[in-house]
Amino acid sequence: MTKAIVVRETGGPEVLSLEDWDVAAPGPGQVRLRQTAIGLNFIDTYQRSGLYPLPMPFVAGNEGAGIVDAVGEGVSEFRPGDRVAYQGVPGAYASERLIAAEKLVPLPDGVDEQTAAAVMLKGLTAYYLLFKTWAVQRGETILWHAAAGGTGLIATQWAKALGATVIGTVGSSEKADMARAHGCDHVINYRQEDFAARVRDLTGGRGVDVVYDGVGKATFEGSLDSLRPRGLLASFGNASGPVSVPDLGILARKGSLFVTRPTGVHYYARREDLLEGAAALFDAIKSGAIKVEISRRFALSDAADAHRALEGRETSGSVVLLP
């Protein structure tokens, strides 16, 4: 048995329940993982609330790192004692768990487990957005919403290292300072000014090449208004609610724009893509191009408080849960 945060009905943070949870011996192709750190992400709240439904009951969470405890039949890539990490696999909020070996990546020297748990989902999200969804080129200008958030702090540093001009939006002066320290050339406090108008000012009326928007409903139209003709809006999250586009003609009227709704499920469906992204992420961390900020640490038993802090916009950078 292990301790796990279980969801038996959808709702607010109060539905997160610390329970004993059975962890069997690993089956064929599986690994039993003793987790040392677990990442906190908005997708965890979407699954808990029912926005992204999962079969009930389920163990919350999607990202973690730890030590291989046992391997099942047919697993040759890992052995007990190996340090590993993963992202995008529900069931993370537990001291121990079973997981398919193909979903794990080995941790290199120079990347500790708390850093890995804080960065895997966010960092691999940043990777596919910056390198695959829109391959950012030197000299381009991008807009990143929630630039002081966990994914934002990673992505803006990475985009700056690629040679882009980076504009970020934030909701406070403290977060503005953090965004500037992590790659943003220009920071807009959306509580104090119209971010789309400010983007137009900063780009001489042209607009940016691409907008990366994990906020959703509250920023969608402003994001479109921030783009140059034939620019791309990558809408990858719903922190303020899901986006609805009933009239596709708006994309024509605003400049023959492109909109995509990417997810890591499709970008990392093949193991070779997962390993490629993880290798690039770990190299960026070890080179210093990305500095991972863990702003808060919660005990696993306090997962509900961690969710409240995340949804209340009380966090910046990454947050980890410690079993």
From TrEMBL:
One of its GO terms (cellular component) is cytosol. It is an enzyme of class 1 (oxidoreductase). GO terms for molecular function: mRNA 3'-UTR AU-rich region binding; NADPH binding; quinone reductase (NADPH) activity; zinc ion binding. Gene3D superfamilies: Medium-chain alcohol dehydrogenases, catalytic domain, NAD(P)-binding Rossmann-like Domain. Residues 11-321 form the Enoyl reductase (ER) domain. Keywords: NADP, Oxidoreductase. Coiled coil: none annotated. The keyword NADP applies. Its EC number is 1.6.5.5. PANTHER family: QUINONE OXIDOREDUCTASE PIG3-RELATED (PTHR48106), QUINONE OXIDOREDUCTASE-RELATED (PTHR48106:SF13). This is Quinone oxidoreductase 1.
